[in-house]
Amino acid sequence: MSFVLNGWYQAAWSDEVGRALLQRWICGQPVCLYRTRDGAPVALADRCPHRKYPLSLGRLDGDIIECNYHGYRIDAAGSCVGVAEQSEQPRAAVHRYPLVERDSVLWLWPGDPAQADPDLIPDLRWISDPDWTHVRGLVPLGARQELLVENLLDLSHETFLHPTTIGNAAVAGTPIEVSGEGTTVRFSRRMLGITPPPFYVKSMGLTAPADRWQDGEFYAPGVFLLHIRLAPAGTQEPEGYHMEVFHGMTPATQSECHDFWALGRDYLTGDAGLSRFQQEQQLAVMAEDVAALEVQEAMYATGGATMPESSIKGDVAALRSRRVMRRMLAAEQSAS
Amino acid sequence: MTTATMTEGGTAAGGRPGMPEREVVVGVREPAATAAFCLILTAPGCGPLPGWSPGAHIDVLLPGGLVRQYSLCGDPADRASWRICVQREPDSRGGSAWLAEQARPGTVLRVRGPRNNFALVPAPRYRFLAGGIGITPLLPMIAEVSAAGRPWRLLYGGRTRASMAFTGELSGYGGAVTLAPQSEAGLLDLDSYLAAPQAGEAVYCCGPEPLIEAAEQRCASWPAGSLHVERFAADPREAASRDGDLAFEVTCSRSGLTLTVPPGRSILAAMREAGLDVDFSCTEGICGTCETAVLGGVPDHRDSLLTAQEREAGDTMMICVSRCRAGPLVLDL
Fold it and tell me: Using CA atoms, how far apart are residues B175 and B177, in angstroms rounded to an integer?
């Protein structure tokens, strides 16, 4: 399997990266992440140009990484600036990845740096907005990124995988409207006059009948946004409780990915107890997803590659995302 | 002739149960004629409503599982509101009666759509024929055609002048419009109105069944495809299949085979019957397995998978459900 490389993927949360060298695999490539003394984040290919030893196992000397195998010294531009204890100045370098820090996310572009356009980074301003609060984290997932993308683009699974938290019959029972062009896929689900599932009852004190809206967006290759609205049935915007969900779905290898997540809200923003509750619940929900996706990955990996898959209308958003990714991959492969 | 059918109590031809629903709010209710009223519908929160083109309708979902179709008769450029016109039928099986009693400013209605089975085709000139509430899909067509400067005429019949909606709006068009209420003019003179077809002229007719049948008879000698009708069918079961489907030919460019695809049979089925080995899976236009490149002709897309841009580009189609809008259809098979 190959990866779509020309796109922004989340490499880390801002607070994961500091003066300690961090290795993260992204799209099958090892990446060494750190900050220079003035706080600027850096992403270098994590293989010493000498004998491929991970730079992330080296030591940071000021803003220079000194490889712990033979002392090659690499600066923040990826250039070799010498070898410790020796007078040699080998002409060598490692790739430096375009890296943009915005709204607490470190965005990395694994592909052609000339195409790395920061305007393509999605809008996550609610993460920085003082009128919002959020909880966030990183869940490692032992499944290919495609399965996570499709899990999020078909939320009817909430009815079956998450019945004690965010799912009930209304989700799978309500059809979606799918839209989007180019490298974006959108879906919209309007559940009207329903009983809210337990997570929302406890988060918002909402009772039936309620309206629950889900507006999802997939920005290929690695971003999912879900705009959530809950409100007493029949009330109009801007009333209601709003939540935002973000997933940075970053492939690590063919069968693993990093599931960065954030869950934001615009109500009771000062309530630390509510934040703790939402964090616990979100992790419980994601644990259910991880269990399901890792089993699904095993079923995909062990056969049935040519078995045609049955699909229903609820699959349309996920099926469109497959087309988008396939097209992006084909374009990259034909260009190379 | 192409036909669209709407129905009382069932789904419109081409409408599918399970299509996305939305809420709209009645903003204004105003009388349109002695037994008809208009509802102006807006989105909750005053957001934009989906776009539509002349001929489109929405399904209004009423209590008890009733579904009624209403043509959108406002201005497609107005993305903030929709206008529908409801005729109070004395023998209504509930739909228009419920709306007549319940629909007031602030009432929330659940609707599906818009869908358009009665689209305005490009033509050098138009002849419109309306009976009663059948004027509703034609109103926006007339507005568009008039704005485009195409020559057109309308013959509009009804029981009495007072029972006919939109006569005020139509009077602004002057001599192109002929109002012919039965109480004043007797039965419509279709023999003269539908005589002498002009080159490329399109006829659009909507109204009660006897009017449509009469139009079909008079237009039988017109060039094929000139007459476009939309029916308000009494029997919901009639609308389950797509009455408007025509047979068409499809050529497989690689094998050289040309097949006829009859109504009620898909391109995929026709090909398999002809012995062609074609990949497919869901047969419902969802999964994309049967996707085939289009080398010639214009597909009539009925799948769920292609984006609006992909449909417009017209260079690919799902052969398990989609048909042909303009032939000859040539596929890369």
Answer: 5
Local structure of residue A149 (DSSP, 8 states)? H
Measure in Å the smallest separation between the Cα of B173 and chain A Cα atoms. Answer: 38
- Judge if B151 and B229 occupy the same domain: yes
**Would you say residue B144 lies in a domain?**
yes
- Residue whose token pair is 């965005």: A107
Global confidence as pTM: 0.65
**Between these two residues, B63 and B180, which has the higher pLDDT value?**
B180
Query: In order of start, what are the domains of chain A with their CATH numbers?
Result: 15-97 (2.102.10.10), 125-335 (3.90.380.10)
**Which of B:270-329 have CB within 8 Å of A?**
281-282, 284, 286-289, 304-305, 307-309
Handedness of CA B226, B234, B112, B321 (dihedral sign): negative
Tell me what ipTM this predicted complex has. 0.81
Pick the last residue of a domain from B114, B134, B164.
B114
Which amino acid, residue B105?
A: P
Distance, in Å, from the CA atom of B188 to the CA atom of B317, rounded to the nearest integer, reads: 43
Minimal Cα distance from A308: which residue of B?
A: B281
Q: Is the pLDDT of residue A336 over 90?
A: no
The number of C-beta contacts closer than 8 angstroms across A and B is 60
pLDDT at B199: 85
